[in-house]
Amino acid sequence: MSAPATAYVRLWRQRWVPSLLLVGVCARVPLQAYVFAVLLLAAERTGSYPAAGVVTAVLDVAYAAGVPVHGRLVDRFGQTRPLTAAACVNAVAFTGLLVTAHLGPATGALAGWAAAVGLSLPPVAAAARALWSHVIDDDAVRRTALAVDAMVLDVALVAGPLLVTVVSAAFGPAWAVGGCAAVLLGGTVWFSTLPPSRSWTPARRGASLAGPLRSPGVVVLLTVSVLTGALLGVLRLGFVEFAGERSDGPASGGLALAAFGVGSLIGGLLYGSRSWRADAAVRMRVILAGYGCGVGLLTLAPNVPTLVALCVPAGLLLAPMVICNFELIGRCAPEGTLTEAFAWGITATFTGSALGNLVAGALAGTPSAVVFAAAAGFAVLAAVVATAGAAALQPSGKGS
Questions:
Q1: What is the count of structural domains for the chain?
Q2: d(CA 290, CA 283)
């Protein structure tokens, strides 16, 4: 058996790993789908895309603000009670959103319920990442687990919107929103009742209100996450504009985004299948520099087919970068703050994505090469930040 296959077989044979990966898919696909579903619902009920944009913007901001709070509760009380409570409150919020959309689709009311949905979303992804060190002792196997975790995110990123599109076309967006709510509730409750989650005990944490933010290493990693999130935000809008300018239709930009995800999936499979001698902090710098070069290839695309083809190599280092980030957060987070640290990573990525949207909007009308060069620039800047903060990313940079 080849070395790459052996690495994944070793992971699969670890107790509870198959269950954790399966439930991770069930809990994360709706997290990648619900924003799109709510966007379609709000657009249908209000008849206004700007109004739908307001509702989904509120949803994103609320989620970014709420997830670190949920992470801190998990780090304090364990996983089962906070996750179950959040899932139940979230189900009520989704119900309120659906009822409001049916009875009186005022933008303000929809935005209010969207805020409730975002604030109450349970931090399943952060909790799952915190569990890997509890379930797996071997560093190499744990690194493979983080690779698979990142690939689950890639799969969810592609499958979630696709499922929403199919369900909305067949039954209407309200059914898609309801489906997201039901799967999210079931997946979260299932996850929180698994023995590894129930037995997970948070480490004793210090009295600092800053939590993981008191670690210089975590701050460096969150800054990197903001910048790489901005890269993706620029690309999402840039792909749509590129396709629209060439008469292929804005929707064709989704093909480029999907190809980028395929590249990330391939890169994650290759990266997670082998052991690495270089320290994670060194790997992070090299990966970010290569990521910038890969995205820079997109400036050469003259048409949509070429852009789609170039997106595969451009996305190869996305998953490895995310895996390295996970590994370093686990190293740098102070005792008792691991889940909150992963949750802050989600907030940083969402914040960066919003920044990228603003940058891409400001560059609208400029040549696409300029837009893609700006995206690559964010990766280069992230590499500079990782290099400047290298000392904080060493084991001694864990924080007090």
A1: 2
A2: 10
232 and 186 housed in the same domain: no
What would the pLDDT profile of 105-114 be if each residue is shown by its tens digit?
Answer: 788 899 899 9
Q: Do residues 37 and 13 touch, judged by C-beta distance below 8 A?
A: no
Q: Are 207 and 198 in contact (CB under 8 A)?
A: no
- Whether 171 and 125 map to the same domain: the answer is yes
Domain span including residue 109? 18-143+159-202
* 3-class DSSP assignment, residue 139: helix
Query: Band of the pLDDT at 397, cuts 50, 70, 90?
Result: very low
Q: Are 189 and 315 in contact (CB under 8 A)?
A: no
> Tens digits of per-residue pLDDT, 112-134?
999 999 899 888 877 877 777 77
**What CATH number has the domain bearing residue 328?**
1.20.1250.20
Per-residue pLDDT at 382: 96
pLDDT band at 2; cut points 50, 70, 90: low
